[in-house]
Amino acid sequence: MKHLYPIIFILTTLSLNAQLREFHITEREPDASQVVQANTQYPDNAMILVYSDLEGLDFRSSVGGINQQRYNARANRYEILVNPQRQILFVAARGFIEQRIALINPSPKQVHYYLVEERGGQDEISVIFLVEPRDAKLYVENIPTEINKTVNVPLGTVKIRIEREGYRTVNSDLLIKAEQVNYEFSLQEVDLELVHIDANESDARVIVNGLEKGVTDNNKRLSLFLYSGDYTIEVQKNGFLTETQAIEVVEGRVNNFRFNLEKNTGILVIKVSPSDATVLINKRSCGNSRRIELAPGRYRVDFEARNFDAFSETIEIRRGQTRTLTASLEQHTGTLQFSVTPSTARVILKDNDGKVVERWIGNNLVRNLKVGTYTLELSGNGYRSKTLSFSINNDKAERVSFAMVEGEDRSRLERRREKRVRVSDDHIHVKVFNINKKRWIFIPSYIDCPVHYWEASDSEYAEIRYFIILSEDLILKEAYSRFTHCKICRGKTLFHNIIETSGKIIVTITGLSYIVLIAIALS
Asked: Residue 78 and residue 58: Cα distance in Å, rounded?
């Protein structure tokens, strides 16, 4: 008995196929009494209205062009919204053979009307379609039908289509008569036609009826030869949405077809503090870029920075949308435990940039100090001033204790007296002129080289500016042409202008027989 199983299976399969029913599809005239509502979601779509008493119909487009389909019970029709492009529509239902409705190329907001019924079998007869070439494809009422064999077709006028690559397609109405059995057709050969596929991208793959034909060149075009007839063209490129069109290659005409690929990407804009934080997308660094193009999908974004807490977030990128992700990292902090003697000492806390963070007197506990280097400036009456440096580490307490030394602190005037003048050449005379008394009060001897410092110590120097008279062979590091208030004299003629600057030499000249007056401020 086990040898009968394959035979039983084959018989069962044939029986199931024989039970599939067929559709009868015809175009229908518009019904003036019926109102077609505009669709606000797809305002530029075309509308396909299929009237039918059959339930559960499902519709398909050869290019995926259907955006919406629904059954309107009041109007007894199916309403299908499709993109305004060339495409083939199919209808299917449980227990029926899927069948082609029509090849359409609708304009925006155009309406097409069809009637779908179940095909009856009581008026069918057996006929033979004799077709050359013998491998051509025959469709009766859009149903694939065998050629050169006996088949059942309905009496009356039916639509037939016979096609084969390299031959002219036959589309006609055929009258099936009870007294006629054989129907003969001979297809006419046609020449290849030049077809241009133009896209908005180079290196895009062109697929014709499922077979890849090449890629677009630097001019964003692929030229090929096809026989006249209907084709489904797909244009694909990584990072872009595939565009599919049903085209018709017409005999005796230059056939140009345009494809516009849309980027299948979204934009991620990143705003992060600190600005030099490292950004990782799916564990891959995006460098210094803060505007990133990504394919649609979900991504994990990580932020890292030294002395800051790491942060991560999962986001979703949608096609054609810009997503902004803002992240502010929490900086690591620590605590300063400070004690000083005497308790009346004045304390100024400054960060590494010299900015004052806090002021207080005596001991103090300072919390939430950002990780980094700091200085403490200590002062007090009867005590010498002191500057201390320390570092704050993450989540740690830094203990700083200091006992100030008794003694008179140097006054600001005394500190100004110790302002030093740096010189770097032989045989330099230095003269000091008292502006108030209008006389020279101190003339030091020659200063030896290569580098020496000269310090003021006279108490009268509170209102004094230094004037250095340079002899020949001295080269300094600034441009003389930048300054117009300097007096350049021959011999030992005194200056006519007083130049004030912040402790910097402001004149440059290579003196041969010139003597240059150079001003250096004390403050």
From this structure: 9
